[in-house]
Design goal:
Pfam families: Cas_Cas2CT1978 (PF09707). The protein has one domain: 2-Layer Sandwich (Alpha-Beta Plaits), CATH 3.30.70.240. About 15% of the residues are buried. The chain is globular, with a radius of gyration of 13 Å. The strands form two sheets. Strands 2-3-1-4-5 form a five-stranded antiparallel β-sheet, covered by helices on one side. Strands 6-7 form a two-stranded antiparallel ribbon. The protein has about 100 residues and is α+β, with helices and mostly antiparallel strands. Strand 6 and strand 7 form a beta hairpin. It has two helices and seven strands, in the order E-H-E-E-H-E-E-E-E.
Length: about 100
């Protein structure tokens, strides 16, 4: 399962993401079986656009058994919270 959450981004992100993922709520996109290669290409596109446009925030999360808590993530922009590893458990740290 791959999930992308967008906040305060241009409409082009929505058009692109809905072409490959299901938008289950405003700004929240999911795909049950996105391959690692497709996920990487999607992230490359999102990162490239973000470098040019520089507005909002984007988070991509997917299951990764080799990552802490079996959860891997990529972030662009200012996340409202910080994710920390506390002895192998992911926790949210508010700043």
């Amino acid at each position: 399962m791959t999930m992308v959450v967008t906040r305060d981004v241009e409409a082009r992100y929505r058009g692109f993401l809905t072409s490959i993922m299901l938008e289950v709520a405003p700004g929240i996109y999911v795909a049950p079986d996105l391959s690692a290669g497709v996920r990487t290409r999607v992230w490359d596109v999102l990162s490239s656009w973000y470098e040019t446009l520089g507005r909002g925030a984007i988070v991509m999360v997917w299951r990764d058994p080799s990552a802490t808590g079996d959860l891997a993530m990529e972030m662009l922009g200012e996340p409202p919270k910080v994710i920390v590893d506390a002895d192998g458990i992911l926790l949210v740290k508010r700043e």
